[in-house]
Amino acid sequence: MDNGGYMRIPLYQVDAFSTKLFSGNPAAVCPLDEWLDDDVLQGIAAENNLSETAFFVVQNGGYELRWFTPVAEVDLCGHATLASAWVILNVLKPSQEAVSFDSRSGALSVRRGENGLLVLDFPSKPAFSKEAPKALIEGLGAEPVEVLAAERDYLVVFETEDDVRKLKPDFLRLRTIDRLGIIVTAPGLSSDFVSRFFSPALLDGFPEDPVTGSAHCTLIPFWAERLNRGDTWMDARQISARGGQLACQYLGDRVAIGGEAVLYLTGSIEL
């Protein structure tokens, strides 16, 4: 990493949960030899100006993994985990079939699946019925069928995919709610379910996340029960402007989230 008195850090930008460039959710991935100061990591994430930058360090046969938005470190991020696994399994360690991570959300893993999928093993985070705060309904600008809340996010259920697609949130109003994010969802027309994800307080400059793997920790148990799908695979679409596709399986206290990824650029950061 050190070269002539300055530090050079590899940088990969990967479009996650997509089969083609310019869709899915872009994440920056920075492999490190050792951890840098937190303010340096946060500065890199702010400079990258993507919804998430992932950093990892080799540890005990696997990797310690951390995620930063442009303004804060977060406890769990699906698309940047998928992007990190893509870099490891396709660039750094192409002979491996799986990779394990230690994170602020505990042990995570990603394995090669069928037909080019990478499959994330994440914790299940079910939601429970909750009275909707006034700011949530006013901020979304539409009356939902049902409102639930998980530990991190609200889960707001609408009747149709078109209801979800037409939402034009008031992000200033949504900044006042008592959860990190808002997952909006409905049955899909060409998929089992669709969703969008809003987090105006955390994703500064990116109030709608293009594809949110971690939101599916809550979506998967909800739709597995609602659709009576048990542990069978479900097809999900996040219908943001960029869009993304995910394969989902409910495993009780864990969920499997499958997706593909595409490399957009490689480079280096010089500090």
Number of strands: 19
Strand content: 35-45%
How far is the N terminus from the C terminus?
A: 10 Å
**Total count of helical runs of at least 4 residues:** 6
Which consecutive residue ranges, at least 5 long each, have pLDDT under 50? none
Radius of gyration: 18 Å
Structural class: alpha+beta
Multimeric state: single chain
What series of H and E elements makes up the topology?
Answer: EEEHEEEHEEEEHEEHHEEEHEEEE
Tell me the major beta sheet.
19 strands, mixed
> Whole-number average pLDDT?
95
Give the overall shape: globular
Helix content: 10-25%
Description:
The chain is an alpha+beta fold. Helix content is 20%, strand content 41%. The chain has helices at 38-48, 78-92, 134-140, 161-165, 171-174, 216-226; strands spanning 2-3, 6-16, 25-32, 53-59, 62-68, 73-74, 98-103, 106-112, 118-123, 128-129, 146-149, 153-157, 181-187, 193-198, 208-209, 234-238, 244-250, 254-259, 261-270. It has a 19-stranded mixed beta sheet that branches. The longest helix has 15 residues, at 78-92. The model has no long low-confidence stretch (mean pLDDT 95).
